[in-house]
Amino acid sequence: MQYWAFYEAINMNMIEETGDPMGKRRRMKDRYRRASFLTDIEGMKNAIGEMRGMFFPKQPPLNIHARKNIAMPLPDESWFENILTDKIAHHPENAMEYPFYDEPIFDAPLVGFIRGDDPIFHTFKEVIGPHHFTPWEIMKWQAENNGVTAPEPEEISVVSFVMPISRNTRRDNAAAVDWPAERWAQTRLLGEIFSQTMVREIVTELMGRGILAVSPDVTPKFNKKRYPNVGWASPWSHRHIAYAAGLGTFGMQDFLITEKGCAHRLSSFVVNLKLTPNRKRQEDIHAYCLHHQGISCLKCAARCPVNAITAETAHNKETCYQKVADSLKYCNKNYHIFIYGCGLCATDVPCESEIPKPLR
Ligand code: SF4
Ligand code: SF4
Fold first, then answer.
1. pLDDT in tens, 122-160
2. I want to staple 62 with a disulfide (CB 3.0 to 4.6 A). Which of 43, 146, 253, 302 is the partner?
3. Residues lining ligand 2, CB < 6 A?
4. pTM for this structure?
5. How many other C-beta atoms are found inside a 10 Å radius of the C-beta of residue 329?
């Protein structure tokens, strides 16, 4: 902790205080930060936190007394769709930093719901691995934190959403050939920080209303590891959750192809509410990928600078991981932020911003 406090102090010295409500990233006015490898504290915390489940704020407490207030209507599916759409449209943190100030990172979301007792969560334990949480397992952890009994799986739902990446960012990344474009790199970092902030605000509101809620990827339970069957994987895959919610199907590059394409960020959280699924899940997990449907494409493979995608082996996660890890240096040097990323195979491809026409 002393380490972070030390560098935080350096960082704070190097940025200008303007009273901007968007926080210290936005207080770096009209210039790049210096020595970002040392000074982009939020970036470092985010990157390490994402891998190791660290540096997240404490979970908001459950307001046990509010649970007894049965006069208050419970949030329903529309409530979640509206709050997510509204926050993405108006939240001050859905914004790029220098030199793209005030550009929104994400467009309007797609939202889906899954019942907590959906058998697909047990399938995930087989397909991804036994480490992947069911909604009940993570909700039990949150219930125990708050000294209450865990709700039954049928009393739980998962809210999953897709945040499409803006047209400017997609255009820039489509023009990139070796490394991610600057807007893409900012989206990886600032978009993730925004997404976590937004979900935390919603979880805090629900907990304040006496409704148990938890975002699994911002708990100490979240820890990315290499697994024998699936390589690098986390115990809560937003992509698989979004598939389960009927929001899309997988492409050759393993991204989820949705009606807004595969250039997006995904998120999800678990709530102690009965929400009704609003989308039909495709049985074919590759229903929206041209190659998988026997139509010539593999544009994603042609976009990959390290040949991590081939018709024979599909997506080689290890080769991809190495390239993405190497991008950390590039982003630091050129964009002055501490983040890794790539996404070249998600842009300048037929599934970038829509389901390819022949498959709609
Ligand atoms: S670019 Fe073509 S082959 Fe690759 S995921 Fe998209 S549709 Fe499938
Ligand atoms: S993310 Fe980059 S390295 Fe990984 S498969 Fe796509 S283009 Fe290749």
1. 999 999 889 899 999 999 999 999 999 999 999 999 999
2. 146
3. 253, 303-304, 306, 308-309, 320, 323, 342-345
4. 0.90
5. 12
Tell me phi and psi for residue 175, to 5 degrees: -85, -15
CA neighbor of 330 nearest in space, from 214, 177, 106, 153: 177
Query: Which residue matches tokens 């991008």?
Result: 327
Tell me the longest C-alpha to C-alpha distance in the chain.
59
Q: What are the tokens at 147?
A: 């000294």
CB 235 within 8 A of CB 221: yes
Atom of ligand 1 nearest to the CA of 252: 5
Question: In this structure, is the dihedral angle defined by the CA atoms of residues 338, 181, 253 and 319, taken in order, positive or negative?
Answer: negative
Structure-token pair, residue 241: 């959750």
Q: Which residues pair with 264 in a beta bridge?
A: 164
Which of 227, 258, 194 lies closest to 127, judged by CA? 227
Residue nearest to atom 1 of ligand 2 (CA): 343
Is residue 233 within 8 A of residue 265, CB to CB? The reply is no
